[in-house]
Amino acid sequence: MPLARRIPKRGFNNIFAKPLDSVNVSALEKFEDGAVVDAQALLDAGIISKCRYGVKVLGNGDVSKKLTVKAAAFSETAKQKIEAAGGKAEVV
């Protein structure tokens, strides 16, 4: 029988990953048609409280306005919904 194996106690910790603040597509309805939505605009509108590393837009909900959304990341469904409404999803 081999000696006791060394097993990590707390699991894997990725020190390089930056936690992104997430925003649902439904929260973008607050903005006017044709607006450019970025992290600063989301902060000003009170949708997010702080933005350290960037914003990821998630696909929960619907958007009916033509918006240009600039974010660090998009989920596939969020990108599809923004483009279906006539807007643009730009990765910054």
Describe the structure.
The chain has 92 residues and is of the alpha/beta class. It has 2 helices and 6 strands; from the N terminus they run ββαβββαβ. The N and C termini lie far apart (54 Å).
Compact summary:
The chain is an alpha/beta fold.
Measured distance between first and last alpha carbons: 54 Å
Helix percentage range: 10-25%
Structural class: alpha/beta
The overall pLDDT average reads 89
Beta fraction of the residues?
Answer: 15-25%
Low-pLDDT windows of residues: none
Order of helices and strands: EEHEEEHE
Instruction: Give the helix tally.
Output: 2
What's the structural blueprint in terms of helices and strands?
Layout: E1 21-24, E2 36-37, H1 39-45, E3 55-58, E4 68-71, E5 73-74, H2 76-84, E6 88-91
Parallel strand pairs: 1-3, 2-4, 3-5, 4-6
List the main descriptive attributes of the protein structure presented here.
92 residues; alpha/beta; 3-stranded parallel sheet; 6 strands
